Amino acid sequence: MAATRTFSIIKPDATRRNLTGAVTKMLEDAGLRVVASKRIKMSREQAEGFYSVHKERPFFNDLCTFMTSGPVVVQVLEGENAVLRNREVMGATNPEQADEGTIRKTYAESIEANSVHGSDSDENAKIEIDYFFEPEEIVG
Ligand code: UDP
């Protein structure tokens, strides 16, 4: 099967605790290849745009504040069934419900500060990759 791509963010709680390498290793050990990566400080506007599907949710404002509270590492990951594989290694949104051995079970601090983002569909992966990366920044 051909490789597909997904979009990942290592969130501010993880960069603050110097876990960029540890999280990336878990992604790589799950069979995903980092084909683009950059460390950025998200602007409020970028965060609100990125999470616009959640704008009516009660956690939206706090989430945007959290996502702009420190550096994040945005990545494009490539592999077989990349979206699904990444969701599996990430674990459930709420770390208390995440399976053992997942990134969120291992590292997340709370349902909000849950260390990683990963696209939930191939369609959203494409939109999210295009939101943060120019085509020439992705080297497969
Ligand atoms: N989130 C939150 N409170 C909630 C649900 C979600 O702060 O009750 C945050 C959390 O950081 C999560 C993000 O909003 O990762 C996006 O939520 P989504 O339901 O899309 O979860 P995900 O796809 O990240 O597992």
Automatic annotation (TrEMBL):
Its cofactor is Mg(2+). PANTHER family: NUCLEOSIDE DIPHOSPHATE KINASE (PTHR46161), NUCLEOSIDE DIPHOSPHATE KINASE DDB_G0292928-RELATED (PTHR46161:SF3). Homotetramer. Pfam families: NDK. ATP binds at K11, F59, R87, T93, R104, N114. Residues 3-140 form the Nucleoside diphosphate kinase-like domain. This is Nucleoside diphosphate kinase. GO terms for molecular function: kinase activity. Keywords: ATP-binding, Cytoplasm, Kinase, Magnesium, Metal-binding, Nucleotide metabolism, Nucleotide-binding, Phosphoprotein, Transferase. It catalyses: a 2'-deoxyribonucleoside 5'-diphosphate + ATP = a 2'-deoxyribonucleoside 5'-triphosphate + ADP; a ribonucleoside 5'-diphosphate + ATP = a ribonucleoside 5'-triphosphate + ADP. Coiled coil: none annotated. Belongs to the NDK family. The active site is at H117 (pros-phosphohistidine intermediate). Major role in the synthesis of nucleoside triphosphates other than ATP. The ATP gamma phosphate is transferred to the NDP beta phosphate via a ping-pong mechanism, using a phosphorylated active-site intermediate. Signal peptide: none annotated. Its main location: cytoplasm.
